[in-house]
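[job 4471] stage=fold_predict status=RUNNING
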Amino acid sequence: MKYLKTTLAVAALFTFSQTYAQDIDVKVEKRFNKTDANNDKSINLEELTAFYEGKKNKKGEAFDAAKILKRKDTNEDGALSLEEFAAKGKKKGKKKK
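[job 4471] inference complete, writing C-alpha coordinates
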Protein backbone atom coordinates (compact mmCIF):
# COMPACT_ATOMS: atom_id res chain seq x y z
CA MET A 1 0.00 0.00 0.00
CA LYS A 2 2.85 2.38 0.85
CA TYR A 3 4.44 1.64 -2.54
CA LEU A 4 1.17 2.45 -4.31
CA LYS A 5 0.84 5.81 -2.53
CA THR A 6 4.42 6.72 -3.36
CA THR A 7 3.94 5.75 -7.01
CA LEU A 8 0.75 7.80 -7.28
CA ALA A 9 2.41 10.81 -5.64
CA VAL A 10 5.34 10.65 -8.08
CA ALA A 11 3.01 10.25 -11.06
CA ALA A 12 0.91 13.21 -9.93
CA LEU A 13 3.99 15.37 -9.43
CA PHE A 14 5.33 14.45 -12.88
CA THR A 15 1.99 15.23 -14.52
CA PHE A 16 1.79 18.60 -12.79
CA SER A 17 5.35 19.53 -13.76
CA GLN A 18 4.72 18.65 -17.42
CA THR A 19 1.49 20.66 -17.51
CA TYR A 20 3.17 23.64 -15.84
CA ALA A 21 6.07 23.56 -18.33
CA GLN A 22 3.62 23.59 -21.24
CA ASP A 23 1.77 26.59 -19.72
CA ILE A 24 5.01 28.52 -19.52
CA ASP A 25 5.73 27.81 -23.19
CA VAL A 26 2.27 29.08 -24.17
CA LYS A 27 2.80 32.27 -22.16
CA VAL A 28 6.20 32.88 -23.75
CA GLU A 29 4.78 32.29 -27.22
CA LYS A 30 1.94 34.76 -26.57
CA ARG A 31 4.46 37.36 -25.33
CA PHE A 32 6.61 36.72 -28.41
CA ASN A 33 3.65 37.18 -30.76
CA LYS A 34 2.62 40.36 -28.95
CA THR A 35 6.16 41.73 -29.26
CA ASP A 36 6.50 40.77 -32.94
CA ALA A 37 4.63 43.81 -34.24
CA ASN A 38 5.12 43.09 -37.95
CA ASN A 39 4.39 39.33 -37.63
CA ASP A 40 7.58 38.26 -39.40
CA LYS A 41 8.29 35.57 -36.76
CA SER A 42 11.31 37.45 -35.42
CA ILE A 43 11.81 40.35 -33.04
CA ASN A 44 14.18 43.12 -34.07
CA LEU A 45 15.67 45.87 -31.88
CA GLU A 46 12.82 48.30 -32.62
CA GLU A 47 10.17 45.78 -31.55
CA LEU A 48 12.15 44.76 -28.47
CA THR A 49 12.62 48.40 -27.47
CA ALA A 50 8.87 48.99 -27.81
CA PHE A 51 8.16 45.87 -25.72
CA TYR A 52 10.38 47.05 -22.85
CA GLU A 53 9.27 50.70 -23.04
CA GLY A 54 8.46 51.94 -19.55
CA LYS A 55 9.27 48.61 -17.87
CA LYS A 56 11.80 48.23 -15.07
CA ASN A 57 13.90 45.29 -13.92
CA LYS A 58 14.00 43.97 -10.33
CA LYS A 59 16.54 46.65 -9.43
CA GLY A 60 14.18 49.39 -10.65
CA GLU A 61 16.32 50.19 -13.69
CA ALA A 62 15.02 50.54 -17.23
CA PHE A 63 15.64 47.55 -19.50
CA ASP A 64 18.33 47.96 -22.16
CA ALA A 65 16.80 46.32 -25.24
CA ALA A 66 20.09 46.46 -27.18
CA LYS A 67 21.90 44.53 -24.43
CA ILE A 68 19.10 41.98 -24.22
CA LEU A 69 19.14 41.49 -27.99
CA LYS A 70 22.91 41.09 -28.02
CA ARG A 71 22.80 38.57 -25.16
CA LYS A 72 19.96 36.43 -26.51
CA ASP A 73 20.72 36.59 -30.26
CA THR A 74 22.69 33.35 -30.44
CA ASN A 75 22.94 33.25 -34.23
CA GLU A 76 23.84 36.96 -34.34
CA ASP A 77 21.40 37.84 -37.12
CA GLY A 78 20.16 40.97 -35.35
CA ALA A 79 16.76 39.51 -34.47
CA LEU A 80 15.29 37.04 -31.99
CA SER A 81 13.49 33.89 -33.05
CA LEU A 82 10.93 32.35 -30.70
CA GLU A 83 13.58 29.91 -29.46
CA GLU A 84 16.06 32.70 -28.74
CA PHE A 85 13.36 34.84 -27.10
CA ALA A 86 12.30 31.95 -24.84
CA ALA A 87 15.85 30.90 -23.91
CA LYS A 88 17.10 31.76 -20.48
CA GLY A 89 20.63 32.90 -19.76
CA LYS A 90 23.40 34.04 -22.01
CA LYS A 91 25.02 32.98 -25.25
CA LYS A 92 26.97 29.77 -25.01
CA GLY A 93 30.69 30.22 -25.29
CA LYS A 94 30.67 33.77 -23.98
CA LYS A 95 32.17 34.35 -20.56
CA LYS A 96 31.27 37.22 -18.30
CA LYS A 97 34.27 39.44 -17.52
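[job 4471] summary: The chain has a mean pLDDT of 82.
[job 4471] exit 0
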